[in-house]
Amino acid sequence: MIFLGVGALIVMALCGAPLFVVILGGAVLGFLATGTDLVNVAIEMDRIADTPLLVALPLFTFAGYILAEAKTSQRLMELVNALVGWMPGGLAIVGFVACAFFTALTGASGVTIVALGALLLPMLIRSGYTERYSLGLVTSSGSLGLLIVPSVPLILYGVIAQQLNVGQSFSIQELFLAGLVPALLMVVALSVWAAVRHRHLPLTPFDLGRVWKAVKASGWELPLPFVILGGIYSGYFAISEAAAMTALYALVVEVFVYREVSLKRLPTVIRESMVMVGSIILILGGALALTNYFVQAEIPQQVFEFINLQISNPIIFLILLNLLLLLLGAMLDIFSATVIMVPLLLPIAVKYGIHPVHLGIIFVANLQIGYFTPPIGMNLFIASYRFNKPIVELYTATLPFMLVLLLVLVLITYVPQLSLWYQYL
Q1: Rounded to an integer, what distance in angstroms lies between the CA atom of residue 135 and that of residue 59?
Q2: Which of 84, 83, 87, 94 is nearest to 123 (CA)?
Q3: Alpha-carbon gap, residue 40 to 32, rounded angstroms
Q4: CA torsion sign, 80 to 261 to 333 to 149?
Q5: Measured in Å, how far apart are the chain's first and last C-alpha atoms?
Q6: 207's torsion region: left (phi>0), alpha (psi -120 to 50) or beta?
Q7: What is the DSSP string of 221-237?
Q8: pLDDT number for residue 419
Q9: What whole-number distance in Å separates Cα of residue 355 and Cα of residue 422?
């Protein structure tokens, strides 16, 4: 009977059944196999409602959808271009910085490609960058900001990891702090490579008047990241309070100040953002039920014992972990990969002496690169559709960017101080 159920779940997954249905089905089958009361599934689904940090997810997501709906991307591009466009490879650096911040604010990699890519791609080509390089930049930069506050993937990782209660305890604020240096390293590494490669291109003279004009144009949006960062890192705001402030501020500015999101359009934006949040929460609830089964069946311990027999060196384990996460990042969206794999991988990683915060940064950094990992990274298909380019052309365009980011990933993985620097303050 159990084998028939497993077979049915596999068929459902292949036929496109919602992920939360497959995960919940797995939890139910696991509890039936061990003779555990199925009320545990309902308990886990209910327990998620008592997680205070979960309030931050819908609020940050709503703020991201509002900003994506408005002309925030255009103002951000103009401001960053005015500030650093005079540097060698300046426009490429503009792309990296603007994409990183826009992805951080919206929490959606694909939205960045669609919103900023339409502005950035023609600008790059007109400025002398090759079409291949420009396509690679836009496609690979779409996920650059996933380690920057208010990173929804990091919040999701933190919620799941805290429910597992293994390894050293940590806060979401510590996760956000941990992501700063790795995210900065990625942007800097790509920027240095762009400056060296395109040092021959003509430069745009620095114009203070243009900078001031760009600052005034985005004057209402500029305080937002500083208020969020300052409030969270100073301890003045809890994560949920910062999310509420962000959502309210974005709503007032885009609807009533800039008036780029009409009151008529607002209900549609709210509905779209909450559909996204609802799917995440359903998946998370199912994942916690499945995690409960894993814990009761001692599956992480059994997997660790098996791996430990084959691999005793943490360095080798981290290499295999990176390969696995890159593969998952190319096959699953970041939320699905997080809720499925964190309950399995975190207890094993802790036994190898890896700090949960360090693992979270490794986790999100890998999935971030996985978004444009051939052959089936999500960003590759979004860019292919958006710019009407063959998918194979995007494979070759993104490979150099991937190599640069993989070098940074090696540093992040094997130098934990880059993620845990806040502990030394």
Answers
A1: 32
A2: 94
A3: 11
A4: positive
A5: 56
A6: beta
A7: TTHHHHHHHHHHHHTSS
A8: 92
A9: 13
Cα(100)–Cα(146) distance, integer angstroms: 8
Question: Which amino acid makes up residue 260?
Answer: E
Query: Of 76, 189, 78, 72, which is closest to residue 123 (Cα–Cα)?
Result: 78
Report CA-CA distances (Å) from 387 to 129, 132, 161, 296, 391.
16, 12, 38, 49, 10
If you count them, how many residues does the chain have? 425
**Measured between alpha carbons, how far is residue 32 from residues 13, 35, 43, 271, 286 in Å?**
20, 5, 16, 36, 16
The pLDDT of residue 178: 92
293-298, long-range: CB within 8 Å, 24+ apart, which pairs?
A: 293/26, 293/27, 293/30, 293/31, 293/34, 293/36, 293/40, 294/30, 294/343, 294/344, 295/164, 296/34, 296/36, 297/30, 297/34
User: Considering the chain, what is the average pLDDT of its residues?
Assistant: 79
Longest pairwise C-alpha distance within the chain: 73
CA 187, chain centre distance (Å): 15
Say if pTM beats, i.e. exceeds, 0.85. Answer: no
Q: How far apart are CA 260 and CA 275, in angstroms?
A: 22
Token output for 334: 């970041």
Instruction: Calculate the dihedral angle through the C-alpha atoms of 243, 274, 333, 101, rounding to the nearest 10 degrees.
Output: -40
CA distance 17 to 13: 5
Q: Which helix (H) or strand (E) holds 75?
A: helix 72-84
Residue 47, token pair as written in the block: 């327990």
Structure tokens at 297: 């069946």
Lookup result for tokens 């779940």: 9
Instruction: State pLDDT tens for residues 131-149.
Output: 899 899 988 887 888 888 7
Q: What is the DSSP string of 32-52?
A: HHHT--THHHHHHHHHGGG-G
Please tell me the number of Cα atoms within 13 Å of 212 on its side-chain side.
3
Q: Omega into 150 within 30° of 0, i.e. cis?
A: yes
